[in-house]
């Protein structure tokens, strides 16, 4: 019996000794992981040190996942960037440069047109005003837009969930709209209020009207409100509105081959200027990662304000079982994010040389890898 106990103690001591040696020599990141698991401690975040984590169930490392992602993006010739992992930590980043042109490479800090991913910002702004009891989901919009047909029946909640019965109408402008007032006037003039309230109908105009409500209720411009309550407090320095960016060299462009459209910088800004509250922002991938972290960790608003809603879409995101997600498409740039708040995992994907349909298809493959 004593020999058996000595053998067990000796074996454990040997394993710990080997793990300590491997950590000291820094030759095998897996040794770091197993040592942490055995001792119950976490290593400090050392700058420049890439710690490999291991999935509890199947032993898949983040490096394994990165390699799988690279293979998929290379096979499909996708020019883009993927961020994944625990949103409260530094993300795992996979870049795929298939353009052979440095100006088209999507790095983690480059400004990128996030299109409908901006709706999350607008939804949060409205939610903050609701939490402050300045408006409610049942507030009818005739108080703000008396000239819009059926405005006495359409509520703030209807706009947030795209069930207002409002169609976008014309979204083409020959010039870049200069400010929020011009954009809101353009939207009001061109939208079509069908009266089909309660029926799902995705509409940028819903969120343009919400951006206008943010301004009317808060007493400050929509951009000023977003800056004061989200961008500045959470240090999102690489998130800009379209009218703050004047040099095309500062932003990523779409690949004309993916859509066949005119993807020049001025065309992009014209489209963004019309999309008040719904597609008028640039963001770096890292900034959007940090924004999602602030959202899912209940720092900006309680996440339950969003996830407790019973509609399929609310506050700029689609609601799933333990997940929220959103997609964006503008001028050849396709983007998306998915946050699993039950397992505390986030996935962000920005691309600029594939179609929206292709993005949705590859998104499923990439998420399966990132969340496995």
UniProtKB/TrEMBL annotation:
One of its GO terms (cellular component) is membrane. Keywords: Membrane, Transmembrane, Transmembrane helix. It comes from Ligilactobacillus aviarius. The chain crosses the membrane at residues 7-25. The keyword Transmembrane applies. Pfam families: Beta-lactamase (PF00144). It is found in: Membrane. Residues 101-352 form the Beta-lactamase-related domain. This is Penicillin-binding protein. InterPro entries: AmpC-like, Beta-lactam-related, Beta-lactam/transpept-like. PANTHER family: D-ALANYL-D-ALANINE-CARBOXYPEPTIDASE/ENDOPEPTIDASE AMPH, PENICILLIN-BINDING PROTEIN 4. It comes from the Bacteria.
């Amino acid at each position: 019996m004593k020999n058996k106990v000595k053998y067990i103690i000796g074996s454990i001591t040997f394993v710990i000794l080997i793990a300590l040696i491997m950590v000291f020599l820094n030759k095998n990141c897996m040794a770091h992981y197993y040592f942490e698991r055995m001792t119950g401690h976490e290593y400090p975040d050392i700058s420049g040190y890439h710690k490999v984590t291991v999935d509890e169930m199947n032993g898949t490392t983040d490096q394994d996942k990165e390699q799988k992602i690279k293979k998929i993006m290379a096979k499909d010739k996708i020019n883009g960037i993927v961020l994944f992992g625990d949103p409260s930590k530094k993300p795992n980043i996979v870049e795929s440069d298939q353009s052979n042109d440095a100006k088209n490479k999507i790095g983690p800090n480059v400004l990128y047109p996030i299109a409908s991913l901006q709706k999350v910002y607008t939804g949060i702004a409205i939610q903050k005003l609701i939490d402050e009891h300045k408006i409610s989901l049942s507030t009818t919009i005739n108080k703000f837009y008396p000239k819009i047909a059926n405005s006495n029946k359409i509520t703030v909640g209807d706009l947030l969930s795209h069930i207002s019965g409002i169609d976008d109408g014309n979204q083409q402008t020959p010039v870049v709209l200069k400010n929020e007032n011009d954009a809101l006037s353009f939207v009001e003039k061109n939208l079509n209020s069908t009266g089909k309230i309660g029926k799902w109908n995705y509409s940028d105009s819903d969120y343009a009207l919400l951006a206008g409500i943010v301004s009317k209720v808060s007493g400050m411009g929509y951009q000023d409100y977003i800056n004061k309550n989200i961008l500045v407090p959470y240090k999102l320095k690489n998130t800009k509105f379209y009218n703050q960016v004047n040099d095309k060299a500062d932003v990523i462009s779409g690949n004309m081959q993916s859509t066949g459209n005119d993807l020049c910088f001025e065309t992009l800004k014209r489209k963004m200027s019309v999309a008040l509250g719904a597609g008028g922002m640039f963001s770096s991938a890292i900034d959007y990662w940090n924004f999602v972290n602030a959202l899912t960790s209940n720092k900006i608003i309680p996440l339950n304000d969003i996830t407790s809603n019973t509609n399929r879409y609310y506050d700029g995101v689609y609601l799933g079982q333990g997940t929220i997600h959103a997609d964006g498409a503008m001028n050849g740039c396709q983007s998306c994010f998915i946050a699993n708040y039950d397992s505390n995992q986030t996935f962000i994907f920005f691309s600029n040389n594939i179609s929206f349909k292709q993005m949705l298809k590859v998104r499923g493959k990439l998420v399966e890898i990132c969340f496995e």
